[in-house]
Amino acid sequence: MDDKTLQSLKAVFIASPTPDLAKIIALQLAERGEFSELENYLSHLTTTIVGEDGEQLGAAALKAGAYANALQFLDADDPRHALLIIRCKLELGAIDIAQMLYKELVQTNPQYESAELNRRLKLSAEKEPVKLRVIEKAEPTESFELLQFKRPTTNFSDVVGLEDVKKQIHKKIILPFQKPSLFQRFKKKVGGGILLYGPPGCGKTLLARATAGECKANFFNIEISDVLDMYIGESEQKLHAIFEKARNETPSVIFFDELEALAGKREHTRNSSQANTVSQFLTELDGFAQNNEGVLILGSTNVPWSLDSAFLRPGRFDRMFFVPPPDKVARKSILEHHMQDRPNAGDIQFDAIANRTSGYSGADLANLVEMAADEAIDSTIASGEETAISMQHFVAALADSRSSTTEWLTTARNYARYANDGGRYDDVLEFINKHGK
Prior knowledge:
Layout (H helix, E strand, L loop, with lengths): L2 H13 L3 H14 L5 H5 L8 H13 L3 H5 L7 H13 L3 H14 L6 H6 L19 H8 L15 H16 L1 H6 L5 E7 L6 H11 L3 E5 L1 H4 L6 H15 L3 E5 L3 H4 L8 H15 L8 E7 L17 E4 L5 H12 L10 H6 L6 H22 L7 H10 L5 H13 L7 H10 L2
Parallel strand pairs: 1-4, 1-5, 2-3, 3-4
Helix pairs in contact: 1-2, 2-4, 4-6, 6-7, 14-16, 17-19, 19-20, 21-22
């Protein structure tokens, strides 16, 4: 690819940043060895990239000093990738983890042994006998190097729509954080567990970040990979370390995304270690020796019916909020938000588009804008002149787009009608009856 073509792609990317275009530009920069602006494009890559492309991007990100970005492109099962992962961990200061990964790599692939890595990891060149790893106690520094889970917050002004949900959260969650003395007089604890559930792409994660921001609390975003571990007993130790850190930094909000992976029904688990992780989680939420005063535990899931029933009793995730697809007013606001700073022909009828996108999630609407932008780019390439995004492009995009929430609402309707213990899914039934889904 020549310089002129690369510059043209960069210009198109500025007008309409997409993951596919970011990948093409990032690979070209990596091939040229131009690392200074590489990180600008790596941050837009949200999908998994495997094979040689993943290795090339991982190696380039490592050279550019974007060590955290490099890890998302690397597969530990590939020895060449594993070597790059070890170097990233070493640069991030996770020496113990780098040592462990390096020993495992050299044990199965002796050809990857390196005198330089032996020196940097303070290992002898002589191979050590294989030993069974016994974990007695988690090392907090190791866990926190692995997790790196503290994240910035936002506030409700950045959450479009969901007014009813925001009112409930303000009343039941935020006020206790803002006026702790009042609630203490009535023997009400500040904190507890809240479950956000609903179809994917409707803003559960953003709502959790905004809740933490409104509470003026530290926000810890926990993902599955931050907890689950291949070694028996270590997942439980990591969970304990996470909760201990949150208890020491109150007020704090711990957010568990895709909660069903850590809190699934124990009768469906395949081995005892999974059941032990669930039991440890329950103990941290409401154990005899635990004091979670000032700690709010938020969980989000697309499948609340898959959670172990012990999590939904009072004292744990006892408050459930349904996060539905956006209504018409919210859909219009979301579309206008995603059209900001894009070329606009001025004839886009956002009300009409909102009317035709009933049941669309926020993610569906963002994708619809991307599809309209693709149509405008195609017109620009065909005509040779820049074409702004118009209503015509949205009409073409609507013809190829579909709501991703329909399947979820169909499944949820069955649970709401036939397994609605204690009115748990009344909000879902109300939404379905109102919108005719």
